[in-house]
TrEMBL record:
This is Uncharacterized protein. It comes from the Bacteria.
Amino acid sequence: MQEELLRTFNILSRLNDSCREKVISQEELDEQDSNLDDFRKMVIELRDILSKLENSNTQSVDETVEILLQLHLKFSDYIWHTDQIHELLKKMAGNYRDSY
């Protein structure tokens, strides 16, 4: 999914460049670029948490619950990052025709 988010961002940026009136501001593009850097790091953290969960001692309920909560938080982050790209996509889809 990481590659798809990056590709989507690059396509939206390219489409935005082709518009006579920019649909997405430079500030929004810069912020999303930074978010994608954070997303890359988050994916690594997500993989680490999954590895911990796979290798955890299921006899330790507290440890398992703690790791599950970490996983929950990472999935919340994952959803947020996906939603940020989705918001840019909706903005472009709704305004591209008038701005081209």
